[in-house]
Amino acid sequence: MDTAVTDDQNFLITCDRDEKIRVSNYPNCYNIHRYLLGHTEYVHRIILLPDSSLLSIGGDQRMLLWNLDTGANLQQISLSGDVTSASWHAPCLLIAISNLIRVYKRSSGVLELSSELKLDYDVISLSVGVGCAVVITKQPGLHEFKLLDGVLVGEL
């Protein structure tokens, strides 16, 4: 359901309807380098982070942080529902669960919950950039927020 290629283009990372994340050699993708095992249901989103880290989001309502070099699971975060959208811009990760947006900040290699913002409508998609986040909701549509030190503040 999602794919990523490492910056050095040595590995293709894939996930789909099972609980496995495959790290395959690229471009010879039939050679699997390793599996990242830890989810108990499908994995629907993977995000490459700096320093050989990978974030995975699964249908088991958990986010897992991985070290790609060793395959070690570095962190598990339980969520309160299914993630509808996720976006990363260092050092912040934004995820949407229904009408709730959570901001995680990466510090010392781990993700820490920095803030939450509850909206009136469910989030369809979101994207984070330098100092701002753009959010699309079911109604009334497009919203833009300032992002200051890991906290979403006032709509622009």
Task: Explain how this protein is built.
- This protein has 156 residues and is mainly beta.
- The protein has strands at residues 2-5, 11-15, 20-25, 32-37, 43-49, 53-58, 62-67, 73-78, 85-89, 92-97, 100-107, 110-118, 123-129, 132-137, 142-148, 151-155.
- A hairpin with a 2-residue loop joins strand 9 and strand 10.
- The protein is globular.
- The relative contact order is 0.12.
Question: What's the number of extended β-strand segments?
Answer: 16
Strand order of the largest sheet: 1-2-3-4
How far the N terminus sits from the C terminus, by CA atoms, comes to 33 Å
pLDDT averaged residue by residue:
95
Estimate percent helicity.
under 10%
Kindly provide the radius of gyration, computed on alpha-carbon positions and rounded to a whole number of angstroms. Answer: 16 Å
Number of helices: 0
Shape: globular
Any low-confidence stretches, pLDDT <50, length ≥5?
A: none
Strand-pairing-aware structural class:
mainly beta
- Helix-strand pattern: EEEEEEEEEEEEEEEE
| Biggest beta-sheet profile | 4 strands, antiparallel
Q: Could you give a short description of this structure?
A:
This protein has 156 residues and is mainly beta. It has no helices and 16 strands.
Structural topology:
Elements lengths: L1 E4 L5 E5 L4 E6 L6 E6 L5 E7 L3 E6 L3 E6 L5 E6 L6 E5 L2 E6 L2 E8 L2 E9 L4 E7 L2 E6 L4 E7 L2 E5 L1
Antiparallel strand pairs: 1-2, 2-3, 3-4, 5-6, 6-7, 7-8, 9-10, 10-11, 11-12, 13-14, 14-15, 15-16
